[in-house]
Write a structure and sequence with these properties.
Elements (H helix, E strand, L loop, with lengths): L14 H13 L4 H22 L1 H10 L20 H6 L12 E4 L9 E4 L1 H16 L9 E5 L9 E4 L4 E5 L5 H14 L3 E4 L1 H14 L8 E4 L6 H11 L3 E5 L8 E2 L7 E3 L4 E6 L12 E8 L10 E11 L11 E8 L3 E3 L5 E3 L13 E10 L2 E8 L6 H15 L4 E6 L14 E3 L3 H8 L3 E2 L1
Amino acid sequence: MTHARPRRHRDLQNADYAEWRQFLRTTDTWSRTDIERYQLEAIQRLVARASTQTTGYRSLFDNAGVGPGDIATLADVRRLPYVTKEMLRDALAAYTATTEGCDYVTTGGSTGIPFGMYRTPQAFARELASKAHQYERRGWQEGDPQLVLRGLPIDTPDHTALVDDLNELRCSSYHLVPDAMDGYVAVARAYEPLWLRCYPSAGCLFARHVLETGQSIPSLRGILCASENLLPEQESLLRAAFGVPVFSHYGHYELAALAGFCEHTSRYHVLPQYGYVELIGTDGLPVTTPGGVGEIVATSFLMDATLFIRYRTRDLAVYAADHCEACHRPHQLWERVEGRLQEFVLSATGRLISMTAMNMHTPVFDPLRQFQFYQASPGEVEFRYVPRAEGVAAPALDAMRTALGHKLGADIRLSFRQVDDLPPTVRGKRRFLIQDLPIETLHGSASGHLHG
C-alpha cells in the first residue's frame, strides 16, 4: 500500500474551497479592529437580507422593533431575537432565503431535536476549508496520509477502504471489535498515516485496544478529533496510546460556529471569519468572566440559504479570555466545551451535571470494555457496561458505585446493568450518555445549577 500524496487533493479542486482557504490564511493575523469591522459588516448584510428575503426573520425583527438600520455596533446584535431549532424545524421555508441550487441536509439529532435545512455547495466548501485552516495550525496539509475512524459505512471484508483522491484510509467505526481493530492496526502500519481523524468515542475504543495489545502506529504525528465533545480522560487515553498531540474542534451541522485548538494550547479559539459567536448566561447577558458558563449563540456567515441569526445551539462552553497569550490571536477563547445539553444528567433537586465532570480516568473502571449512562427520569441514572470478561466481581462493582456516587451526588439514584453490547448511533458514534429527558425544556428551570 502506498500513501504518496495525490497530484491534486479533491478539496483543492473546488474553487470555493481553495478561495476560502486563501482568505483565512491572509486574515489569520487580523487585529481585533479588523475582526470587529468584518463581523459588523457581515451581520449588517445578513440582517438586511433576512429582512427582505425571509418572512420568518422579518416577522421576528418587526415584533422586536429592530431593523437592519439599527445594527450600528456589535453590541446592537443583542437587540435581535433568538431563533431555535424548533422554530426552524417547524417553519423552515420562512427562515430560508433561497433553495435553488441547494442541498437539503439533516442533522443527526444529538440534542434530541433532529431537523433539516438548506445548504449551498459553497457553504459546505467553506466549512471544509475552515476545518482545514484549523488543522493546519498543527501541521496538517491536504494530501497528508490519514487514518479515519468516523461514521462511514464500509462493506469491504476487512471494513477498510482507501480513498485515493483524499489520501485517507477509512476504517469503519461500526466494527470496533478486537479482530477488526487488529486488522485496522495492520493496514495502518502498512499505510503509514500521519494523522488519525476520529470521533473521540471511536478513537478511544481503538486506543484502548492498542494499549491492551501492545501495538502501535509509529508514523502518526497527531490526532484530529471532531463531532463529539472531547473529555479530558479521552484526551489522556489517546495521548497514552499513540504518544502524539491531540487536536479538537467544536462545530455542528448548522455551520453557525467553529472553534478549535491553536498551535500551542488546548483551549478552543472561536474562528471569527466563520460567524459571530456569543456566550450567553442564564441571566441573558454575555459571559465575559473567566470560568463562566454560557450557552453558545451563533450567527453564521457561511449559511446563505437557511439563515442562522442568533441561533441558540443548546451547547454550553466555559469562557476563558478574549485573546490567546500563546498564539496572540485576538479570538474569543473557551476553556472547554462543557457539552451539549443532552450531555447533562438532571438530579432530583434540579442540578444539571455535565458529563465532563464524571472523569472516568481511573483504574476503578479497568474491568470494563465499554460503558454508557442512560437517563429517562429526573434523579435516576442507569450505568450500562460491557465487561472485559464474562462478568465483574462484586467488590469491583461496589468500587465503581462508590466512585460514581461521589461524583453524581446524593440526589441521583444510580443503578447498574450489564449488557452484551453498546451499539453506535446511525452515524457510528458511541454516546457517553443517552439522555431521554427533554433537557431542552427543563434547561430554563435548572440551568442556574450547572455543575462541571
